[in-house]
Write a structure and sequence with these properties.
This protein folds into two domains: 135 residues, Aminotransferase class 4, branched-chain amino acid transferase, N-terminal domain (D-amino Acid Aminotransferase, Chain A, domain 1); 160 residues, D-amino Acid Aminotransferase, subunit A, domain 2 (D-amino Acid Aminotransferase, Chain A, domain 2, Alpha-Beta Barrel), CATH 3.20.10. With 339 residues, it is an alpha+beta fold. Helices cover 25% and strands 28% of the residues. It starts with 19 loop residues before the first strand and ends with a strand. The chain contains seven helices and 18 strands. The structure holds pyridoxal-5'-phosphate. Pyridoxal-5'-phosphate binds next to helix 5 and strand 15.
């Protein structure tokens, strides 16, 4: 039987959705059995907890269709763990790992016919929100919650494919509050939005790189790495930024390839010196590994080396997509096959 493989949507990332989603409700301290059905709107009381007190967290991961036509979810279990960590910090009910993994896998299986070929993929958005109708619960956790997995077939996140990106380095404002940076919650994105929109409008940049007090952290939607042949440098894990699954995967692959991988804090000044002949890249589920061509620091544009996407960036990006697409052996057990 020949399987018809759908084209990746050409519109903006995240605006096309699958056919079905999985939903589980939490009440009286327990999860109901998840249900899989057509994607449809929810109806909420105007007093719903999440609408007032931001009791929400989410995840973002992808299922890829390989050259062999096999569909693989990338790093399912690490994303499940990160969602559990976010839920814990936000005092939302922590979804059972097996239940959450099964909900995601079921959604991929039910939307398998919508998974485009690379570079497209099926983006998955697990979302957890507090649903108790109670505007008096500012200092209390929601007594009810809703968990759902929304699928979205996607093409490239950065329109224009692989091209050098431009970032503005923000040295005063942080992306989020220091203790919440590693939590995947909407408030962090709300905090970064204004700065990012203003910088896009004024400077035509792709992303803002947050480096409060000179400490280089991450952009509004991806982690940040400095690279040069056989060497990767990125900030050490702490609570100030999101612990990206792509970051972790790139570092593991770089170590496999014999690179010197340094996880330590570094400053904007050090980054400027690095830019003389070194590369920079943004890593994320949506961005994959995108080369940074230049950065704007205090109004001055500084290129990274030649200003093009660097060779080390391309090599590591290739190593990552080779595993995601089943072209290279999955030595770390990162992929979950769905059929
Ligand atoms: C703020 C932020 N940092 C980093 C990342 C990269 O994380 P991951 O590689 O797990 O997608 C994301 C993407 O979701 C993000 O929103």
């Amino acid at each position: 039987m020949t399987v018809e493989i759908p084209e990746a949507p050409t519109g903006p990332f995240g605006t096309v959705f699958g056919d079905s989603f999985s939903v589980a409700r939490w009440a009286d301290g327990d999860w109901e059995t998840p249900t899989l059905g057509p994607i449809e709107p929810f109806s909420f009381h105007p007093a719903t907890h999440v609408l007032h007190y931001g009791s929400a967290c989410f995840e973002g991961l992808k299922a890829h269709r390989g050259d062999d036509n096999v569909v693989r979810i990338f790093r399912l279990h690490r994303h499940v763990e990160r969602m559990q960590e976010s839920a814990r910090v936000l005092r939302l009910p922590v979804p059972d790992a097996d239940m959450l993994a099964a909900m995601i896998t079921d959604v991929v299986a039910d939307n398998l016919h919508l998974v485009p070929a690379a570079p497209g993929s099926l983006y998955l958005r697990p979302t957890l929100i507090g649903t108790e109708p109670n505007i008096g619960a500012a200092a209390a956790p929601s007594k009810t919650a809703l968990l759902y997995i929304l699928p979205s077939p996607v093409g490239d996140y950065f329109q224009g494919g692989i091209r050098p990106l431009k970032v503005m380095v923000e040295t005063i404002q942080p992306r989020s509050t220091p203790a919440f940076g590693s939590v995947k919650t909407g408030a962090n994105y709300a905090m970064a939005l204004g700065i990012t929109l203003d910088a896009k409008a004024e400077l035509g940049i792709d992303q803002v790189l947050f480096a409060p007090d000179g400490d280089v952290q991450e952009t509004g939607a991806s982690n940040f790495l400095l690279l040069r042949d056989k060497h990767v440098l990125t900030k050490a894990l702490d609570s100030s930024f999101l612990h990206g699954v792509t970051r972790d995967s790139i570092l593991a692959l770089a170590r496999d390839m014999g690179y010197d991988v340094e996880e330590r804090n570094f400053t904007v000044d050090e980054m400027i010196v690095w830019a003389d002949d070194g590369e920079a890249a943004l890593s994320g589920t949506a961005a994959v590994l995108g080369g940074v061509g230049s950065m704007i620091v205090d109004g001055e544009e500084i290129p990274f080396a030649s200003g093009e996407v660097g060779a080390t960036t391309l090599k590591l990006r290739q190593a990552l997509t080779d595993v995601q697409l089943g072209r290279a052996p999955d030595n770390h057990g990162w992929t979950t096959v769905v059929s």
